[in-house]
Amino acid sequence: MEIVTTGEIIAGIFGLLAILIVARSVRTVSQGYEYTVERFGRYTRTLSPGLHLIVPMVDRIGAKINMMEAVFDVPSQDVITKDNAAVTVDGIVFYQVLDAAKAAYEVANLANAILNLTMTNIRTVMGSMDLDELLSHREVINARLLSVVDEATSPWGLKVTRIEIKDIKPPRDLIDSMGRQMKAEREKRALILEAEGERQAAILAAEGDRQSRILKGEGVKQSMILEAEGRRESAQRDAEARERLAQAEAKATTDVSVAINKGSVQAINYFVAQKYVEALHAFADSPNQKLLLMPMEVSSVIGSIAGIAEVAKEAFSDKKEEKSESLNSRKKSKASVPSTGESV
Fold first, then answer.
1. Across the chain, where does the E strand assignment appear?
2. Considering Cα of 13, then 15, then 16, then 22, what sign does the dihedral take?
3. Is pLDDT at 340 greater than 50 in this prediction?
4. How far apart (Å, rounded) are the C-alpha atoms in residues 17 and 123?
5. What pLDDT score was predicted for residue 228?
6. So what's the pLDDT on residue 343?
7. pTM of the model
8. Which residue has the higher pLDDT, 44 or 302?
9. Buried b (16+ CB within 10 A) or exposed e, 162-198
């Protein structure tokens, strides 16, 4: 049996002390964390993720701070709104530590401090709003809470990234009254929309009627214009026809006069007889006449025609006598002039 000497015992003690000192001087920091180092109870530096050496028996690890973004729930609480409506509200908070030393030494119990600060500001912000604003402006509430809480926690080395109101629960009777109000509002909107639709329909109908009257008036106007154009064209054509008829009548009369001047007695007889026959034909074709009454005797008509013929004959005989007298005078004048042989 071996006997352990005092020297070996002392050597073993020193070996254990050396191992203990090395173990306490080497520190490994995990990713996402930072450690604070204290020397004789005073903060000296912050260890980032990785392997580090500290002075044993002099330095020690003070706080291990989680540098990752964290989230915790805000428990439900009652809030009295500006219009004295009681609602139950809860939410969530997202935050991240930016300065490990401040988070470790500027505030005690960091999570509890953030929670109480958030709940207090929820009551402050939501208590200054009406119930309708509270229910319809949740984004505004979140923005105001984030601004206030982030500014308050900035000295603690924190960054509050987001605050969300999860649920707002009004009392049951208030929910029922809001439902009735919503129903009444929807019925009101429906009536307004219906009245507006009827109004628009009436306006469109009146506009259509007006346009129809305008188009009808335009049509009547165009019809009257076309009718007037037709009457004007017809009048022009009638005038031209009468003018041509008058020209033809004048030409016929001229031809008859020329014939009479040339000694044709039959021409005037034909002209008078034609007019007489036309007059009798017009009387005979009258639709209201069933009995034709002669206004004069046929013998008197023939006598008048004969008288006209005699006048024409006298005119022609006078012209012949004048012509014969002129011829006789010409012959006498020729006879009174001596011939060339007689004068010799």
1. 26-29, 33-39, 42-47, 50-53, 59-66, 70-80, 86-97, 158-169
2. positive
3. no
4. 58
5. 85
6. 34
7. 0.49
8. 44
9. ebbbeebebeeeeeeeeeeeeeeeeeeeeeeeeeeee
Distance CA 50, CA 31 (A): 8
Helix count (H) and strand count (E) of the chain?
Answer: 9, 8
pLDDT in tens, 89-124: 999 999 999 999 999 999 988 889 999 999 999 999
Nearest residue to 29 (alpha-carbon basis) of 55, 47, 43: 47
Question: Which residue, chain included where needed, has tokens 């009406």?
Answer: 130
CA–CA separation, 91 vs 167, rounded Å?
Answer: 7
Given a contact cutoff of 8 angstroms between Cβ atoms, the answer to whether 114 and 95 are in contact is yes
Residue whose tokens read 């002099």: 58
Phi (first) and psi of residue 264, to 5 degrees? -90, 105
Rounded mean pLDDT of 263-271? 59
Length of the chain in terms of residues written? 344
Cross-strand bridge partners of residue 79 = 87
Alpha-carbon distance 320 to 323, whole Å? 5
What residue has token string 């005699």?
Answer: 310
